[in-house]
Amino acid sequence: MSKIWIFDLDDTLHDASSKIFPDINKSMTDYVSNKLHISHDDAHALRDQYWRVYGATLKGMIDNHGVDPKEFLLKTHNADELSKFVKQSHALKNTLKKLKGKKIIFTNAPLHYAIAITKSLKIQKYFSTIYSIESTNFNPKPSLHAFRKILRRLGKKPYKCAMVEDDLTNLKTACKIGMRTILVSKLNKKPIFVHKRISKITQLI
Ligand SMILES: [Mg+2]
Hints:
Elements: E1 4-7, H1 20-36, H2 40-54, H3 57-65, H4 69-76, H5 79-82, H6 90-98, E2 102-106, H7 111-120, E3 129-131, H8 144-154, E4 161-165, H9 168-177, E5 180-184, E6 196-198
Parallel strand pairs: 1-2, 1-4, 2-3, 4-5, 5-6
Residues 8, 10-12, 166-167 line the site of magnesium ion.
């Protein structure tokens, strides 16, 4: 049995794809367009390029345009607006309540957003820590650097940890570093680096 449960946030503990991600996506393109005085189409293309090179718009904006990450994250993650899209779930609360062991969140999202979402879901009390994009010096999952940093901060060996995630590339790194990996997905696909697949969080107990 794993001693530490490491949960991703978006699309693992709640549905972010249907309303939240499109909103953040639009805000990021608006931000890039306004900041660099370029059209929305050009901003979109630039974001695509940064996504391929850096794995995130933010990294590209920091390295190439000296953008302040705090400003970028605040302007692109309007927590008050976004948390209105969150749907509470008794089943989720119940699962987290019953699940034994220390539980933490490890997300590529900013801290203010992660706090707002977990509060809206009424699940914040089940987690001892939230590691956000700020915790890894803006190096997002799936970078090994990000995982190593979190493990160091936790002071735990990887084999004591189970990573619960919807994203396969993140689970690949988690497996590589020695964690147990649990995929949350409705798709019937289970690559070799996934130790267990569940279709919803309630199946953890
Ligand atoms: Mg996710």
